[in-house]
Amino acid sequence: MRVARSRRLVGLLTLLAVLAIGVGVTGVELPALRLPGGGGSPPAPVAGVHAIAAGLLLRVGAGAPQGGELAFMAVEPGGNLVISDSKRHTVMRFDPTGHLLSEWGPRLGDTVLGEPAGVAVQGDNFYVVDRGTPPRILELDATGRLQTILNLESFGTYGLNGLAVDRGGNLYAADTGRNRILVLAPNGALVRQIGHSGTDLGGMTQPMMLAFAPDGTFVVADWENTRLERWDANFEATDVWPTPSHPFGVAIDQLGRIYAPDTDHRRVQAYSAQGALLGEMGAAGSPTIDVAPKQVAVARSDQPSLYVLGADGVVRLDLENTAPPPQGGGDVDPLSLVVIGLLVAILVLAIVARRSRRAPDLT
Q1: Which of 268, 262, 269 is CA-nearest to residue 247?
Q2: Is 106 buried (19+), middle (13-18) or exposed (0-12) by CB count in 10 A?
Q3: Number of neighbouring beta carbons within 10 Å of residue 36
Q4: Which residues contact 9 (CB under 8 A, 6 or more apart)?
Q5: How many CA atoms within 13 Å lie on the side-chain side of 98?
Q6: Tens digit of pLDDT per residue, the chain (363 long)?
């Protein structure tokens, strides 16, 4: 009797599975479900992107002074480029065409810029990380005059790199050797530390750079872990995804697309906020990037564009939006779940029925 009931149940489940598959084949769509913790409605698809042109903006010895090594860059509100030169110990400003406007350092008044690294701009204020002794952040005005020195020695930093500034004027410095991001108030007071050593969500191993999105979230280039890590405005890590090589830099455009340089393959990859690949600049079929990319920055222009910095030059990529590629976001197809559940149930019942037939009758 038990075997007969099992056979009838298997037959019923098989029929339901066949009907569900038939519904799927006919193209009937059911509303998508969100897994618990999925954040409500799915994110809107983000446009893909590809490069339509690439042009060498400047080269060390041809546009930039001879003997330099370009390190980090930022873009002013007016569109000018700010670039640190780690070998010549200066900070340079270029217009959007690559013309050198000014150069500050190594001497800034009575202070010598020892080892410039990350740069950031907010309004008419310019900031540069000095990795020398003591480690510090220097604030300059629009003429390059030194305004403030934020001494970081008491924080025990080791190998500072990238720098970014939020809307409130707080400075975010990548403390690479300590596997953390330091958040500093405009007066240099420590606001918080972000991250910890490790490979888990929220962990970092040698963070190099970070960039802010229009919604206040930010993304960290986690160099040694070969990945990008996204943090929300409440300083909680929300997403992480791998990159094809160790990322030195990261930039985010007004659509929220995230750009990361691939130094080893001379490419720049674009991602959604959840890590879906949106495009590859410099890949096959795309204009060649004539530098080994280390840093990227979004150009301030009507034409979607990206600056790509290598140690010996800067390339400008003109971009074009494409159709949104498939992007994940935690959606679940309920029809697929039904079919999978039914097939698993059929398998389990078939095994139970088979064992029941083999069991000896002890009565």
Answers
A1: 262
A2: middle
A3: 5
A4: 349
A5: 18
A6: 554 565 566 556 565 655 655 544 444 444 444 333 344 455 678 999 999 999 999 999 999 999 999 999 999 999 999 999 999 999 999 999 999 999 999 999 999 999 999 999 999 999 999 999 999 999 999 999 999 999 999 999 999 999 999 999 999 999 999 999 999 999 999 999 999 999 999 999 999 999 999 999 999 999 999 999 999 999 999 999 999 999 999 999 999 999 999 999 999 999 999 999 999 999 999 999 999 999 999 998 888 999 999 999 999 999 999 999 876 544 444 555 555 665 655 655 556 555 555 555 544
Phi, psi of 308 (to 5 degrees): -125, 120
> Is 160 within 8 Å of 146 (Cβ atoms)?
no
Would you list the domain boundaries of the chain? 2-35+334-358, 48-322
DSSP 318-342: EEEEEPPPP--SSEE-HHHHHHHHH
Q: From residue 175, how far is each of 18, 37, 84, 130, 207 by CA, in Å? A: 58, 31, 17, 12, 7
DSSP single-letter state for residue 155: G
Structure tokens at 224: 């040694």
Cross-strand partners of 25: none
- Residue 60: enclosing H or E segment and its boundaries? strand 48-60
3-class DSSP state for residue 359?
Answer: coil
* In CATH, 48-322 is 3.20.20.140: no
CA distance 269 to 277: 7
